[in-house]
């Protein structure tokens, strides 16, 4: 069991990864706030169920993740400063 998951607050919000919502007293509550790495979106703070926490909490950025790619495309004439 992940120690960060155990220390986080109980929540009945949906799991940010799978969408699980605890609906009964026998259904284990999700935990939040938990910071985890998403390969597409980067670092996220949200609610996680136990199964998703087991997978996501130890994940770290790695080469090839979309979130680590340089988003500036030099083949365009658009000014990246105007996008902000």
What does the radius of gyration come to? 17 Å
- State the end-to-end distance: 41 Å
Q: How many E-type strands?
A: 3
Beta-strand level of the residues, as a percent range?
15-25%
pLDDT averaged over residues: 86
What general outline do the C-alpha atoms trace?
Answer: elongated
Q: What does this molecule look like?
A:
The mean pLDDT is 86. A 3-stranded antiparallel β-sheet has the order 1-2-3. It is built from 2 helices and 3 strands, in the order αβββα. With 84 residues, it is an alpha+beta fold. Helices cover 14% and strands 23% of the residues. It has one domain (3-62). It is elongated and about 55 Å long. The termini are far apart. β2 (30-38) and β3 form a beta hairpin.
Q: Could you list some keywords that capture this structure?
A:
alpha+beta, elongated, 2 helices
Topology:
Layout: H1 3-7, E1 9-11, E2 30-38, E3 42-48, H2 50-56
Antiparallel strand pairs: 1-2, 2-3
In brief:
The chain is of the alpha+beta class and 84 residues long. The protein has helices at 3-7, 50-56; strands spanning 9-11, 30-38, 42-48.
């Amino acid at each position: 069991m992940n120690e960060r998951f155990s220390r986080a607050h109980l929540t009945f919000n949906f799991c940010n990864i799978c969408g699980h919502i605890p609906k009964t007293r026998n259904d284990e509550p999700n935990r939040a706030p938990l910071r985890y790495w998403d390969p597409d979106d980067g670092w996220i703070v949200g609610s996680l169920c136990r199964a998703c926490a087991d997978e996501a909490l130890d994940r770290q950025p790695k080469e090839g993740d979309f979130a680590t790619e340089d988003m500036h495309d030099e083949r365009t004439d658009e000014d990246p400063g105007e996008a902000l």
